[in-house]
């Protein structure tokens, strides 16, 4: 049973990780900029006291974030987050609607398991048939080869 995807459903239509990563990178960039600016304010000591040493691997205002700033240099504030995620929400809604149009989405696990068992049995029968055909082909090949050898002996 071959299932064809609807035209409006492609891997790009349901790939939200790329867009989400981009939004999070922009948000991190804005937060890193804010943290750095706070550390450089007048009245804030430049050197930390010894008792406030961050844990190894902790993200501080001076620790670079793993992904760095976004390539285009744009940053995103928390206030801009709802507007920035609108496209992502719409993409998820379209993907959800497209997935609901797929055939057999409402089937239960038991029904799917039954079909899998039928297909495995069909595959097993096909393998048996292919083995029989292979055997018959080898016998035919050997018979033809022996006929050719007998014909060569008659000519000599």
Automatic annotation (TrEMBL):
Entry's localization field? Nucleus
Q: Which Pfam families did the record assign?
A: Med9
In this chain, the stretch annotated as Disordered covers 36-74
Recall the GO molecular function terms of this protein's record.
transcription coregulator activity
Please give the coiled-coil regions recorded for this protein. 102-129
> Its principal location?
nucleus
Which keywords are on file for this protein?
Activator, Coiled coil, Nucleus, Transcription, Transcription regulation
GO BP term, example: regulation of transcription by RNA polymerase II
One cellular component term from this protein's GO annotations in UniProt: mediator complex
Q: What does this protein do?
A: Component of the Mediator complex, a coactivator involved in the regulated transcription of nearly all RNA polymerase II-dependent genes. Mediator functions as a bridge to convey information from gene-specific regulatory proteins to the basal RNA polymerase II transcription machinery. Mediator is recruited to promoters by direct interactions with regulatory proteins and serves as a scaffold for the assembly of a functional preinitiation complex with RNA polymerase II and the general transcription factors.
Its assembly, as annotated, is: Component of the Mediator complex.
Q: Which family does it belong to?
A: Belongs to the Mediator complex subunit 9 family.
Task: Please report the name of this protein according to its UniProt entry.
Answer: Mediator of RNA polymerase II transcription subunit 9
Per the UniProt record, the lineage of the source organism begins with: Eukaryota, Fungi, Dikarya, Ascomycota, Pezizomycotina
